[in-house]
Structure prediction request, 142 residues.
Amino acid sequence: MNLRKRPVFMIGVAAELIGVHPQTLRMYEQKGLLRPRKSIKNTRLYCQEDVDLGLRIQELTQELGMNLSGARRVLEMERRLARLEVENSRLREELERQREEHSRAVEEVHRSYKRELVPVPRGELVRNTRIVRGGRSMRKDL
Prediction:
């Protein structure tokens, strides 16, 4: 398990790390901002990610003056932005792979031209034309 996701802090320790009262963490949980895990004895346990999220909530509410609804909205948009950045990166990699694949295909077509073309000395060109008269096709060499 990722150590940042491992629930190891009890509510008092997490509150101290964040710099808030434990009741504030309970309120964040009630508002759906934090989701601590519960132990077998129903004790709230917080992981490092929860502590970091609590610090971010504090920054939004205390330093930027947002209410909890505004903070929730900002957190949702930040999570969405992070997902979109990952998707954008994946799509850029896929686009680059397809560009390389397309370039290889174009190069192969160009190489095939070279195999199909036969150089003819300049004075030896023969032009063929097809003349259609009265429904009959006639070939005429020029």
